[in-house]
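Record format v2
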Amino acid sequence: MQLHRARAQFDESGGHLVLIGQATPRQAAHFRRRQGIQLPVLADEDRVSYRAAGAKTGSAVDLFNPMVVAKGALTGLREKTIQTRTIGDANQLGGALVIDTNGEVTWSHMSTDAGDNASPEEILAALKAAA
Amino acid sequence: MPAGRKPSPPSTADGLAEIVLPDHECHDVRLGDLWRDRPVALVWLRHYG
């Protein structure tokens, strides 16, 4: 969880970072403990906010094309993590929005496939720009 | 959203503001409160696994 390691920088940015997962609060709490995450995690089991944010539901190609599989394997090696049982809809993709105090979405990156994720650096830069 | 379509993020957070979600401690959080005082980066996780 690279975002967690950049937490101090997010705290100093003038903004803040909140994670949203597609599970129950109990599962969110377990995820935080297991990953050692100090960030707030909201639980959206029905994925209402996912739809409102324009997050995509992936097709088989979005989830299992060779580039996605390779990227996932490399990330696992680099982060020394393995994927365990999927909680939530495995087809649901994620993404990120930066929202300013006027309620304007100043930056967005909604994933187009399972390997398409904004880096913590990109998100942090967008958040600093909005502050 | 049907599978295969391009994601379509909103230009404003109006559609998100009134959504209320529980956090990891079961406290309800109104999303609009998250950007009331300072900008927020909301990150939707693909899954917890």
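The radius of gyration of chain A is 15 Å.
Chain A touches chain B through 71 residues (CB under 8 Å).
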